[in-house]
Design a protein that fits this description.
The structure holds two protein chains of two kinds. By secondary structure, chain A is mostly helical. In chain A, 76% of the residues lie in helices and 1% in strands. A two-stranded antiparallel sheet of chain A has the order 1-2. Chains A and B meet through helix 2, helix 6 and helix 12 of A and helix 1, helix 3, helix 4, helix 11 and helix 17 of B.
Chain lengths: 328, 424
């Protein structure tokens, strides 16, 4: 050890000496000292990142690892005894009908979000640029749903969908469509659609803001040039706005897909996964298993499966996006 | 260079030191005082009764503080299991006894307080839900029973009388239906309101031993004929149109079933005696129209009209990990004392689990008489059964109501889970 230390000191000294030599040789140009400074940069960068890294490591990386670890055990979450059982939880999960129902509902939510939230967001964003008076007012109105707390929205819509006092059934009654009236959240066929509609209502404004920001960022001269060439508004949209919005659309799609896959709140407030598991999502089922049924191990295996599904889908999208970028 | 590095290191170190400081001054141990934590879910007058009990406790124990934390009803179960699992449980906590509390007892998280409480001071049926293997793990304060509540004015208007038999009840359902009134209001998103029907039908058909036989795995199981018949009776009512549209999506907590009663769109509701307190808070003027009767007997069934479904709440228990087991047990004694029970009965209309309480409120007096005359108290399935089995019971019952499962399927599914959970 002592010899090693000595050697270090020797190297250190030599380094310092060489530095002195360079400095004395070229006092005006600092070419060589860059190296030690770079080390310092790394230190500084690391120092700035350390808090974020620490939190990320603890609450994301470590948590994912622990979730996988717990998923290998049969564990109630409150007792001290954990029984290792390998991948048994995953085998059970694959045979669990409710899990497949919840996965199906999640995919339904993904599809509905992509097909309604994004187009709706885009349409609202384009409307905001139309030369109509009072657009600033509408901008606030359109954005309102996203500002409301999810629980408040959930309770609001519980009343809207109410079979006896709800406004939807009253409107249907006024229109003479009595046969369409029903308790929207209480029927297994309609409950999931009622909740999905609410989710879309809540999140479309979020994409509106994203698209609006992206449209503002498109240089005005492109439109001017197109105008000189005699392009119609439709052509301007198809050949300028839409292509330049692609990166935003991809980002929105990722956000929407991931958000839909791990969605929880409105379902929890409005139906709690019911009736008869017809609106169960992976996240609500995980919650039920973990905290109601005291199956921490099984709940963890649901969590980890959710994570894997979201990860695989994200990697796919990013892969195709990279490919697209490479081609263009 | 070196200075800069030193500066950064100092800064980082400082951040860590500040970040790692305990947020508060600990539990006040420095000045010799002791702090107990109490978790409960009571609101309104019953919360006040608890706070008064805590005050009495603090006054008689110098240097002891009680930190009272009121939790919300629904998230409470989650919060307590997280706290227990994380090793930081409250010293004294609320429960409903039953399978849920037993989970914690099995996990070694609840203290045996048999020797700390005077068991003779409580009604025996109230102690049972928190007694496991002959040891007491909780002291009960109040009890709940579930009658059928109805609108007295409406019954009078259509010439209806409180039914004694199920046939009579069916006739009431038909009459109300003919007059465009929803016979039974129910908010079954919460699942437990539907469970009341299942429990009553099963008991009336199969007799009071049915549940304990199935629960203790002796004799009949959850797939017994009586359970299948109970499912059939429920679906019969659903097909008759006895319930409001979309009731499986209605939420009791947001008042959707009670609104129908108050608006006189529905005539009856099967609910716990807390319905009285809730009505007083929701719509005091409706109280005078509110009457109740017991769920009628069914012809050819083994159960009697005097057997009632009910439960115990709150039950107070001590965590095994508490620093001050003796003080915590004394706090439990004060919380579940006759004084607290009396105050609760006077101000909240609660039925006491403690002996010797006098009732002033006419309703409560009547409910208490029912309880005293009861031949058998069927404790709520969802609180008696272990949580994962309770969940299956609630889910299958909701599916029965939704007509998406046959009575045989529901009974079979529950029995399968029971085999798995209860015979381990």
């Amino acid at each position: 050890m002592a010899g090693h230390a000595k050697q270090l000191t020797y190297e250190d000294n030599r380094h310092q000496e060489s530095e002195k030599v360079y400095q004395s040789l070229e006092p005006g140009r600092k070419v060589k000292p860059k190296k030690p400074k770079r080390n310092g940069d790394v230190m500084v960068i690391f120092a700035f990142m350390a808090p974020a890294l620490l939190i990320y490591g603890l609450y994301v990386v470590y948590s994912i690892g622990m979730t996988f670890y717990y998923s290998l055990y049969e564990w109630s979450g409150i007792s001290n005894t954990m029984v290792f059982q390998g991948l048994q939880n995953y085998v059970t999960l694959m045979q669990d009908g409710i899990f497949w129902t919840s996965l199906q509902n999640n995919l339904l939510l993904v599809a509905a979000s992509l097909l309604t939230q994004l187009p709706l967001g885009l349409i609202m964003a384009l409307l905001l640029f139309s030369p109509v008076k009072g657009m600033r007012f509408f901008r606030s109105i359109y954005f309102m749903p996203f500002l409301m707390s999810t629980v408040a929205i959930g309770i609001l819509f519980i009343y809207i969908y109410d079979g006896n006092f709800g406004i939807i059934n009253q409107i249907l009654g006024q229109l003479g469509l009595e046969s369409w009236q029903r308790g929207w959240l209480g029927n297994e066929e309609t409950a999931i659609w009622a909740v999905i509609a609410t989710v879309c209502w809540q999140f479309a404004p979020f994409y509106m803001i994203l698209f609006r920001a992206a449209i503002v960022g498109i240089p005005e001269d492109l439109y001017e040039a197109a105008e000189i060439d005699g392009a119609s508004p439709r052509k301007k949209f198809l050949h300028i706005t839409l292509p330049l919005l692609i990166p935003t659309i991809v980002t929105s799609a990722i956000l929407s897909i991931i958000g839909s896959l791990k969605y929880f709140d409105l379902i929890f407030v409005m139906t709690d996964g019911g009736p008869n598991n017809s609106t169960e999502l992976m996240a609500t089922y995980m919650y039920e298993q973990t905290f109601t049924n005291f199956n921490m191990g099984y709940g963890s295996s649901i969590s980890f499966t959710m994570f894997l599904i979201a990860l695989i889908i994200t990697v796919f999208i990013l892969f195709f996006d990279q490919k697209r970028k490479g081609e263009s | 260079m070196l200075n800069k590095k030193l500066w950064w290191i100092t800064l980082i170190a400082l951040i860590f030191i500040v970040g790692c400081q305990p947020t508060s001054g600990g539990s006040g141990e420095e000045d010799g005082s002791k702090t107990l934590t109490l978790w409960h879910i009571e609101t309104g007058p019953s919360e006040k009764a608890l706070l008064d009990a805590v005050k009495r406790f603090e006054d008689s124990h110098e240097g002891v503080n009680v930190e009272v934390v009121r939790q919300e009803n629904d998230p409470y179960k989650t919060k307590l299991s997280v706290a227990m699992g994380g090793g930081t449980p409250p010293d004294v906590f609320h429960s409903w006894g039953g399978g849920w509390l037993e989970k914690f007892v099995d996990a070694g998280q609840v203290k045996d307080i048999s020797s700390d409480i005077d068991t003779s001071a409580y009604l025996p049926s109230a102690l049972t839900p928190a007694t496991f293997d002959g040891k007491n793990y909780g002291a009960p304060l109040a009890m709940d029973i579930v009658p059928v509540w109805y609108n007295k004015d409406m019954f009078e208007k259509y010439g209806l009388e409180e039914p004694k038999t199920y046939e009579e009840l069916l006739n009431i359902v038909k009459t109300l239906k003919e007059n465009d009134i929803i016979p039974f209001s129910i908010a079954n998103k919460s699942k437990w309101p539907g469970s009341f029907y299942y429990m009553y039908f099963a008991e009336r058909i199969g007799g009071p031993e049915l549940f304990s036989e199935a629960f203790n795995r002796e004799g009949r199981g959850f797939d017994a004929e009586a359970y299948v018949k109970a499912g059939e009776k429920i679906q019969e009512l659903v097909k008759m149109g006895a319930f409001p549209d979309g009731f499986n999506g209605m939420n009791f907590d947001t008042g959707q079933s009670r609104q129908l009663i108050y608006a006189e769109k529905a005539g009856m509701i099967i609910q716990g005696n807390w319905m009285l307190g809730t009505t007083r808070a929701d719509m005091p003027a409706f109280e005078e129209k509110l009457g109740f009767f017991l769920f009628p007997s069914i012809e050819g069934g083994k159960g009697s009209r005097q057997d009632i479904v009910g439960g115990v709440s709150p039950v107070f228990s001590v965590a095994e990990k508490t620093e001050y087991p003796d003080l915590a047990a004394e706090l439990v004694n004060e919380l579940a004392s006759k004084k607290t029970a009396q105050q609760l009965a006077n101000e909240d209309g609660a039925i006491s689990a403690v002996k010797g309480v006098e009732y002033k409120d006419q309703y409560v007096k009547k409910i208490n008489e029912v309880l005293q005359e009861a031949e058998y108290l069927q404790t709520f399935y969802d609180q008696t059964l272990p949580p994962e089995l309770a969940e299956v019971h609630l889910d299958t019952t909701q599916a029965l109501f939704g007509l998406s499962m046959t009575p045989e399927e529901a009974a079979k599914k529950t029995e399968e889970k029971a085999k798995e959970v209860l015979e381990k």
